[in-house]
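Residues determine shape. Take a concrete instance:
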Amino acid sequence: MNNYKIYFSHGKDTGPEGIKISYLRAIAEKLEFETESIDYTSTKNPDKRIEILVNSFEKSKKIILYGSSMGAYVSLSASEIIMPKALFLLAPAIYLPNYKIQSFPKTNVPITIIHGRNDTVVPYQNSIKFAEKHMCELHIINDNHSLSNSKNLISYIFEEFLKKILI
């Protein structure tokens, strides 16, 4: 085991054992990362989910935050407090008018974003705006918000992301 722990944050309408988390968690564990998938199903309020995440992390570990959709917003918003070593975000629900946090501090940690070009829930342009401001890695792929047609590509990008962290 390395000294890293990945916290997985699911989207608004999914759960801690969702499809994306399940296959990405297997990749992380194969590379000897400790993992935890936070259960946010008790609330759909993103600000309460931020509190749940902040109250869950282990300070003794090197933290990596993963989030999908609302979970990406939660991970990114909590990162100012948690100070992770890296973030991996799928279709992040950022810059949406009904979300409290609209500005995210610049960070020097690696951030990788994957967003579907055909996303009708969160415009992929929001990820472009964030990536340009924060100089992070961005993949715009031919998929929708759930990214359900891109399991192999997401798996590959995630595994490479984790391998770079271990170097």
